[in-house]
Specification:
EC 3.5.3.8; alpha/beta; binds manganese (II) ion; hydrolase; HutG; histidine metabolism; 10-stranded mixed β-sheet; 35% helix; single chain; 330 residues; manganese; Arginase, Chain A
């Protein structure tokens, strides 16, 4: 039995359901699934699984504005309203949430990792709705544990921040997830290929730039680099980064975008990456055929304006699954 795991018991799509694919919306097509159902066996074909990570404890510990715990509940209705373009052969399951108000971030990350691994075993491609960026360590660990040990798992993070801070004083939080991945890799004497896209110099201290400069395998582009380079050059850099890696995990921290398009995040961003450029690069990454899971994190509904940020997160899911559904083997 999975811990801290709750299947959904209420439908969140409000509207009439009809079978006409030309009129269908995501909310009409999404099926609920209980990962604790022991009778399940691996599904055939292309299957996506949405799972919420209901924790923003890491944001609180990191002195950020809390609220991302409600992210999954805000993103789901936005996704449900989008038109269905995936045909009849693609299935999208909503498998529920990892939740536990009285559980530590580490415990919930551990539970998310187990749920993600279970999804992979059932041939369900994980799409995780954060939660604070503490989501990433749990998601990554689950993906890593589901892969053969000889397959490398690269990480591409769309983020204004490196999230590589040490956690010996504070414990794990929303700013330490990738440092935890890095430390795990060091311990297991393997590389940690990590590419951050959208770094803002004014949001990262010199300790972090120094750490990155001294650490093999970590690369980044600033938001300004991306603005100057344009999407074609960024895609080329991504190709070079992925060339010798078997698999990739993608995580989208909504704070890489400006508060103009993503006001509802834990840490607002005055500059930010253009969401169109991010989307082109994301689609390019998915088209590599190496993607094994992705998440959208740090959507903080109490700070959002008319669900703008939740809607942008749902939009990324729409376009990424469009490409991902055309990749038949992962
Ligand atoms: Mn982050």
């Amino acid at each position: 039995m999975l811990e801290d795991y709750y299947k959904l018991v209420y439908p969140y799509y409000q509207g009439a359901v009809e079978d006409d694919l030309y009129a269908a919306k995501w909310g009409m097509r999404i099926q609920f699934l209980d990962l604790n159902d022991e009778a399940l066996s691996p599904f055939e074909g292309i299957n996506f699984g949405i799972i919420g990570f209901k924790s923003d404890k890491g944001v609180y510990i990191n002195h950020g504005r809390v609220g991302a715990v409600e992210g999954p509940e805000a993103i789901r209705p936005q996704l449900a309203k989008l038109p269905w373009h995936l045909g009849r052969h693609v299935r999208v399951f909503d498998v529920g949430n990892i939740d536990g108000p009285n559980r530590s971030l580490s415990q919930l990350q551990h539970s998310l990792a187990k749920a993600v691994k279970r999804m992979r075993e059932l041939n369900i491609r994980p799409i995780v709705l954060g939660g604070g960026h503490g989501t990433a360590y749990g998601h990554y660990t689950g993906l890593k544990n589901s892969l053969p040990t000889n397959e490398s798992l690269a990480v591409i993070n769309f983020d204004a921040h490196f999230d590589l801070r040490p956690y010996d004083q504070t414990g794990p939080n929303s700013g330490t997830g990738f440092r935890q991945m890095f430390d795990d890799a060091q311990e297991e004497k393997r590389a940690f290929p990590y590419l951050v896209l959208g770094i803002q110099e004014h949001n990262n201290n010199l300790f972090l730039f120094d750490f990155v400069a001294k650490s093999e395998g970590i690369e980044f582009l600033t938001g300004l680099d991306m603005y100057k380079m344009g999407h074609e050059n960024i895609c080329q850099l991504v190709d070079r980064f992925l060339a010798d890696k078997e698999k990739v995990y993608v995580t989208i921290d909504m704070d890489c975008f400006s508060f103009g398009v993503a006001p509802g995040v834990s840490a607002i961003q005055s500059l930010g990456v253009d969401p169109n450029v991010a989307l082109i690069v994301l689609q390019h990454i998915v088209a590599s055929g190496k993607l094994v899971g992705f998440d959208v994190v740090e959507v903080s509904p109490p700070h959002d304006i008319d669900f703008h940020t939740a809607n942008l997160a749902a939009t990324f899911i729409f376009y990424m699954t469009q490409i991902w559904s055309q990749i038949h083997h992962i």
